[in-house]
Amino acid sequence: MESDFNGLGLQLSELTADVAKQLGVDEMTGVVITSVKSRSPSDIAGLEAGMVIKKVGHKVILSVKDFQIAMKDASPKAGVLLLIQAGEATRVGVGKG
Questions:
Q1: How far apart are CA 33 and CA 29, in angstroms?
Q2: Which residues contact 69 (CB under 8 A, 6 or more apart)?
Q3: Which pLDDT tens digit goes with each residue over 47-69?
Q4: Cα–Cα–Cα angle for 14, 25, 85, rounded to 5 degrees
Q5: Contacts of 84-87 spanning 24+ positions with Cβ under 8 A
Q6: Dihedral sign, CA of 46, 52, 56, 57?
Q7: Less CB within 10 Å around the terminal CB: N or C of the chain?
């Protein structure tokens, strides 16, 4: 499990079949938010444990490594566009640090 990710204040894990079933996620794409640091850009943007990050910008995320790579090109201070799935709902979140 990695944390922070360029100052976002997240901890993530891989999306497994068991976790996907528990979260009500049909597609096996994305990474699961396992915790969010209090008062971090992710917390301020409303991200919570159990949400699944499907995309960073236009890049589909298949693993924590994909997320790391995508975040190397992102700037939380300028804003990061994330496609988030929480249960059956999908929303777009923009975090600014």
A1: 13
A2: none
A3: 999 999 999 988 999 999 999 99
A4: 80
A5: 84/47, 84/51, 84/52, 84/53, 84/54, 85/25, 85/30, 85/51, 85/52, 85/54, 86/48, 86/50, 86/51, 86/52, 87/23, 87/24
A6: negative
A7: N
